[in-house]
Design a protein that fits this description.
The structure is a single chain. By secondary structure, the chain is of the alpha/beta class. The chain folds into three domains: 4-128, HUPs (Rossmann fold); 129-163 and 206-290, Serine Threonine Protein Phosphatase 5, Tetratricopeptide repeat; 301-474, DNA Cyclobutane Dipyrimidine Photolyase, subunit A, domain 3, CATH 1.10.579. The protein is 47% helix and 6% strand. It has 21 helices and five strands. The protein has helices at 19-24, 48-66, 79-90, 105-118, 148-157, 198-201, 206-220, 224-227, 240-244, 250-263, 268-290, 312-320, 326-338, 343-356, 361-371, 377-388, 403-410, 415-420, 429-432, 440-446, 461-473; strands at 4-9, 29-36, 73-76, 92-98, 122-126. Strands 3-2-1-4-5 form a five-stranded parallel β-sheet. Helix 4 (105-118) links the parallel strand 4 and strand 5. The protein is globular. The structure holds a DNA duplex (15 and 15 nucleotides).
Length: 479
DNA sequence: CCTGGAGTTGTCCTA
DNA sequence: TTAGGACAACTCCAG
């Protein structure tokens, strides 16, 4: 009798460094499946940009498997039912998968394990796309870390993450198994196709991930410490969407970075800084695991009654990149047009939404969720709470980014701002980040008519800052 | 249980 | 022009 295993692909869309797939390869036959279950996660089921990346990742995985003569089975429906039916259909005795850490994942995995067991099928769950399991990192008192620095120090004290695994040699099923067509899932936008041109910017899938990592380590990591803050420079890794979908594992990133450090000791500081950003991803996942309400509720309970405003017009202006603050608008338009935003600018726009507009961080979290290719429940929730001040190890209340100063400091020559806000392209550097201060003749010469070709500032920085400080000061009056 | 240093990414005012 | 301190007080976490 043929010994057949099912590999259930989730957010681990790759073939290398996948312990569960390597283990499944010991069976006579392996049938890989990806299940589209739109009921999972409720309001946190993937947004539009994520679906675009998912499509590309699945297409890439299909091709990689096809090279071994194996077809990726695509099915739609309730995950548990699909797995049970498919296991029965192909006579599988085992189902392999990687672990997830979302609030609903543990219960889902338990239910699936129990349901499969009824048909004498074993669910074999392997560690997920992290460096360390949440259970393996704790304070001396056994509690989860709530501050990043001691968390990361504890991670670094642990044994190195396991060495990475090669892609296993798989033998597919000896008969055809029904699969839906990826195109029928309609993961790509059509009318309108807002992702037109994204193929030139991104290469979803495992090969693209390794290209991006290799190029980053070869050409850009050496200036990471300073360069990562300059949005016009290519010194960030842009690995986040690949990590989000498991096109690459953080262990692969870790070991590649360590190898790079060995050959280029001068870049060691930059590389450690980069790895600490991988550490932030790790920290967010661990926090979400221990505090599953993170995406929906303020981590710091003092914020339960924070006087957030709810001005829909202002929120809309922020979303559309029409706030009148050039660096903010540049970021929001980069997001809308490319599915990505530079990290420094993410902080600026998030600070602007929560502190200048006093709009609840959850509105920003929601918008990013739909627009970002790397929309990740853990990183998105924790980062928004961090900026808003309610999160773990959060930004202090008085840290209110001045959007003019941030623009002048990090986009001094205006390259980034002019690219995404072309109506200001002819503004001189001196006034690019504060066009409302420009004399009439300068505006005329640059072809800018405030309130017409480019908005007047939505709020006045100084008074918005004072209003935020005053709102945040109400926190300390609460019990 | 107590103690004390520390805490991703800033801004503004003053001297 | 520039450097330093204030901006709350609190919680976290290791010793």
């Amino acid at each position: 009798m043929t010994d057949t295993a099912l590999y259930w692909f989730r957010d681990d869309l790759r073939l290398t460094d996948l312990a569960g797939l390597a283990a499944a390869a010991a069976h006579d036959q392996v049938v890989p499946v990806y299940i589209r279950d739109t009921s999972l996660g409720g309001e946190w089921s993937p947004g539009g940009a994520s679906d675009w990346w998912l499509h590309g990742s699945l297409e890439s995985l299909q091709q990689d498997l096809q090279r071994q003569g194996i077809t990726l089975v695509l099915r739609t429906g309730d995950t548990q039912s699909v797995l049970s039916e498919l296991a029965q259909e192909i006579g599988a005795n085992s189902v392999y998968c990687s672990r997830h850490y979302q609030p609903w994942s543990a219960a889902l995995e338990r239910e699936i394990r129990d349901a499969l067991a009824q048909g004498d099928v074993t669910l074999k769950r392997y560690p997920g796309t992290l460096l360390h399991e949440p259970e393996d990192v704790a304070t001396g008192g056994g509690t989860p870390f709530k501050v990043f620095t001691p968390f990361w120090r504890a991670c670094l004290r642990r044994p190195d993450p396991a060495p990475t695994l090669p892609a296993p040699t798989l033998r597919g099923a000896d008969r055809r198994i029904a699969s839906e067509a990826l195109a029928d899932w309609q993961l790509l936008p059509t009318a309108p196709n807002w992702a037109a041109g994204w193929d030139a910017l991104w290469q979803p899938g495992e090969a693209g991930a390794h290209d991006a990592l290799a190029q980053f380590l070869a050409d850009h990591v050496q200036d990471y410490d300073d360069g990562r803050d300059i949005p016009s420079q290519p010194n960030t890794s842009r690995l986040s969407p690949y990590l989000r979908f498991g096109n690459i594992s953080p262990r692969q990133v870790w070991h590649a970075a360590q190898a790079c450090k060995a050959t280029r000791p001068a870049a060691a500081g930059d590389i450690d800084k980069f790895l600490s950003e991988i550490g932030w991803r790790e920290f967010c996942y661990h926090l979400l695991f221990h505090f599953p309400a993170m995406p929906d509720e303020a981590f710091n309970p003092k914020f339960a009654f924070f006087p957030w405003g709810s001005d829909r017009d202002r929120l809309r202006a922020w979303e559309r990149g029409q706030t009148g603050y050039p660096i903010v608008d540049a970021g929001m338009r980069e997001l809308w047009q490319t599915g990505f935003m530079h990290n420094r600018v993410r902080m600026v726009v998030a600070s602007f939404l929560t502190k200048h507009l006093l709009i609840n961080w959850r509105e920003g979290e929601r918008w990013f969720w739909d627009c970002l290719l790397d929309a990740d429940l853990a990183s998105n929730a924790c980062s928004w709470q961090w900026v808003g001040g309610s999160g773990a190890d959060a930004s202090p209340y008085f840290r209110i980014f001045n959007p003019v100063a941030q623009g002048e400091k990090f986009d001094k020559a205006g390259e980034y701002t002019r690219r995404w806000v072309p109506e200001l392209a002819n503004m001189p550097d001196k006034f690019l980040h504060k066009p409302w201060e420009a004399p009439a003749e300068i505006l005329a010469e640059a072809g800018v008519v405030l309130g017409d070709t480019y908005p007047e500032p939505l709020v006045d920085h100084k008074s918005a800052r004072e209003a935020a400080l005053s709102a945040y000061s109400t926190l300390k009056e609460l019990p």
